[in-house]
């Protein structure tokens, strides 16, 4: 009886061991280094993901990320990905990965891991003005003397040490001694009190050798002076400007709203990327309708809106 009991216990543990081995888990050197279940890799590297256990056969799948919950994008079998290891690169960013395995009677699939592409996000800058102290004129912002303008890197968690500029440098990266460099400023925020064309160069915190220059089109030119509209400072009044048009949220990942109720309808809305390419056009757009920009590549864009009475508004926004 004792022999039978020992045999049954041994058999039970053997079965449990087989079941345990039939639970594939994905591992990777960079998996979970910054966020659980997430792989972050630098743009000059490939990343190898694999199962922690060996099986008889493998098939790797990927699913495109979406902001929507649940994610209804299909899982797609990766052609030729039938070994224990899978190599992914920067082109695989914003995708989930999983593997289905078989081994004798075992048929199972792993939990998914995410290849996050945020370290590849191009730098973007947010500009903050004090209401009533500025007006934009043909892409140049006139600012009242005594006021200040704050520039912020929108993705401070991504980028570490910064180099700030008061004009567009002559090379990328800027050579030491370039007159455009603002010396001694390395943080993700700069407050300007004098005229210039401002932008920055920064390296990612996670990948110190991965550095990016803010697109020169995204540099912001401010011109400080005693402008006519500055006479209203201290009176509580703010002069409106015909070319001011509210756009929100900015930055945005999916929906963008523009306009004001007094205009109600814009007979044409176009979005242009920083190369000047037309990427989206809408006719007869209502001010309270959402513009879906989820398909746009992350970066900086110009949106031009034409009201029913012929006024044209130009604004910049950032697609996350």
Automatic annotation (TrEMBL):
Pfam families: Por_Secre_tail. Keywords: Signal. Residues 1-20 form the signal peptide. The keyword NADP does not apply. It comes from the Bacteria. InterPro entries: Secre_tail. This is Secretion system C-terminal sorting domain-containing protein. It comes from Chryseobacterium sediminis.
């Amino acid at each position: 009886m004792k022999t039978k009991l020992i045999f049954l216990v041994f058999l039970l543990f053997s079965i449990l061991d087989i079941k345990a081995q039939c639970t594939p888990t994905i591992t990777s050197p960079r998996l979970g280094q910054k966020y659980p279940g997430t792989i972050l890799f630098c743009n000059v590297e490939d990343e190898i993901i694999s199962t922690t256990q060996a099986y008889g056969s493998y098939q790797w799948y990927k699913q495109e990320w979406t902001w929507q919950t649940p994610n209804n994008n299909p899982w797609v079998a990766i052609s030729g990905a039938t070994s224990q290891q899978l190599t992914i690169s920067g082109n695989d960013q914003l995708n989930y990965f999983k593997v289905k395995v078989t081994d004798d009677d075992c048929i199972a699939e792993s939990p998914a891991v995410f290849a996050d592409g945020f370290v590849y996000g191009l730098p973007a800058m947010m500009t903050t003005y004090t209401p009533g102290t500025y007006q934009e004129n043909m892409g140049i912002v006139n600012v009242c003397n005594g006021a200040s303008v704050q520039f912020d890197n929108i993705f401070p968690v991504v980028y570490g040490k910064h180099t700030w500029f008061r004009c567009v440098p002559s090379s990328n990266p800027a050579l030491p001694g370039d007159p455009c460099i603002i010396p001694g400023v390395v943080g993700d925020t700069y407050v300007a009190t004098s005229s210039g064309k401002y932008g920055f160069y920064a390296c990612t915190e996670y990948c110190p050798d991965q550095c990016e220059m803010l697109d020169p089109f995204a540099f912001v030119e401010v011109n400080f002076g005693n402008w006519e509209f500055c006479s209203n400072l201290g009176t509580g009044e703010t002069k409106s400007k015909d070319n001011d048009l509210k756009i929100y949220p900015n930055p945005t990942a999916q929906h963008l709203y523009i306009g004001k109720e007094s205009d109600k309808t814009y007979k044409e809305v176009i979005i242009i990327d920083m190369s000047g390419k037309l990427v989206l056009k809408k006719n007869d757009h209502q001010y309270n309708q959402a513009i879906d920009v989820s398909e746009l590549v992350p970066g900086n864009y110009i949106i031009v809106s034409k009201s029913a009475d012929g006024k044209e508004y130009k604004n910049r926004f950032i697609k996350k």
